[in-house]
Amino acid sequence: MKKVLGYWTGVMVLILMGCSDTPTHSANPVRQMAIGQFDRMITSADFSGLVVVVAAWCPPCREELPDVARLYRGGLPEGLKIVALSLDEGDAKPVQRLVADLNLPFPVYMVGMPAAAHYKIVGVPSVMTVKAGRILEKIPGRQTPAQLTARIKSLTDTD
């Protein structure tokens, strides 16, 4: 009797584990990073591209990110990158869920609210254009696909 009870207990545990709301591992994991480490990454001379500033709780961010993903999947000019900077704090699960729900193909770095003060971000979503490690502009508000494309094009123009 104890063996049968143990067997069925094990089966139930496995079934319940399969019902967990824990997100499955994404091909694009969320990377938690300190503000100093993130800043060194985007201000290095070899970084040029867009930094999309988002938060998992932000509806306009959820609207803009699919456009950013399409731009990324469409192919970027050589040497340009797109990364997302999440201002979310604490548990990474909401950000992981956002990445999985929207199937985001670019790196997402969870840096937290210190990034808002450091980069003087006034709201989300925002986009920062960076060329050779220099932040050229910070644009608050949701960007249209045409605006995102124009930002990428501006980074390929010669000075």
Q: What does this 3D model show about the protein?
A:
With 159 residues, the chain is α/β, with parallel strands linked by helices. It has one domain: Glutaredoxin (3-Layer(aba) Sandwich), CATH 3.40.30.10. It is 43% helix and 21% strand. It has six helices and six strands; from the N terminus they run αβαβαβαβαββα. It has helices at 2-18, 35-42, 59-73, 93-102, 114-119, 145-156; strands spanning 30-32, 48-54, 80-86, 108-110, 126-131, 134-140. Strands 1-4-3-2-5-6 form a six-stranded mixed sheet. It starts with a helix and ends with a helix. 28% of the residues are buried. The model is unreliable at 10-25 (pLDDT under 50).
Please give the count of helices: 6
Strand order of the largest sheet: 1-4-3-2-5-6
Task: Determine and state the CATH class.
Answer: Alpha Beta
Q: Which CATH architecture is right?
A: 3-Layer(aba) Sandwich
The radius of gyration computed from the alpha-carbon positions, rounded to a whole number of angstroms, is 20 Å
CATH homologous superfamily identity: Glutaredoxin
CATH topology: Glutaredoxin
Protein structure class: alpha/beta
Which bin fits the share of residues in helices?
A: 40-55%
Number of strands: 6
Please sum up the structure shown.
Helices cover 43% and strands 21% of the residues. It has helices at residues 2-18, 35-42, 59-73, 93-102, 114-119, 145-156; strands at residues 30-32, 48-54, 80-86, 108-110, 126-131, 134-140. Residues 10-25 have low confidence and may be disordered.
